[in-house]
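Board work, copied verbatim: Flavonoid 3'-monooxygenase
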Amino acid sequence: METPTWPSLTLAWLATIGLLLLSHYLRRRKVNLPPGPKPWPIIGNLNLIGSLPHRSIHELSQKYGPIMQLRFGSFPVVVGSSVEMAKAFLKTHDVTFASRPKIAAGKYTTYNYSDITWSPYGPYWRQARRMCLMELFSAKRLESYEYIRKEEMNACLRDLYESSNEVVLLKGNLTTVSLNVISRMVLGKKYTDETVDSIVSPDEFKKMLDELFLLSGVLNIGDSIPWIDFLDLQGYIKRMKALSKKFDRFLEHVLDEHIERMKGVKDYVAKDMVDVLLQFAEDPSLDVKLERHGVKAFTQDLIAGGTESSAVTVEWAISEILKKPEVFKKATEELDRVIGRDRWVEEKDIVNLPYIDAIIKETMRLQTHNLL
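↓ predict structure ↓
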């Protein structure tokens, strides 16, 4: 039997590759794909995505319609940009689209997708959702933290009053009050005050959160073109790993403090959300055991998720009100009529303030639109 020559082997390989490409092409012709721009080899449509990806995608949707297909490197991306498409993705086929893609941000900043935000849809995610609805964010527990929100809001107003003759950067004050509230609800104490035994300085704590928000939303080239991921061309993975080490050091300290406080206390009553999570970690009846790294990942989610969104929403609302004096006047009149000038607004008063409630909803609608 003759040994195959190199030309014959090369021809066989080329024929095999040709058949594979042909079959792939024929299979694609049978699929009714959404319209979209023609992708380039290797990079796909990444050349069409600018520094503000959501705006680039919006501009493309104006050309290709409410549902379109893009290609980010090696991965197809289907984009829906209408009420009907949102309903299809988020309601009709919500289970199909429930999981986020496994990208570097989830791997390196949330203990390998162990948190609520990045974990794939399944028993672990469903258990986390139940924990949030039934325990962490139950009406009873949130009501029990009202005194924290009241104290921190009063402290914020006091600081603003003392700065009344100076230029005030409102976002900084709003971020601080949100962070203080969330820290006390989740961790049991504030980490924006300088103390002798602080594991991080207030400034470092805020910078860690800012870095987490940034890295969670960056467009990392390695996520789209996996075979060049190891190069870390933009330096994002290096920053994610460094941030992960800082957060882990901080969260280990937080958990050790809580475990020491709970040790030896019979029928210990949880004082904050970390206490609740640690009690879940000891619960043998859970469908999926909550490991220590899961407790840390959930804690990080709770801190980050409750800080930036609240502060930015209030900042947007005040910005829009200041542009419209007639709206400011009506809101003030409603407060004077319902609350008066002898006391502060309380959470129970919100249901009696329909105009201000409408302002909040319009702020959300308007600013979501403006992002596009």
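The first helix runs from residue 6 to 30.
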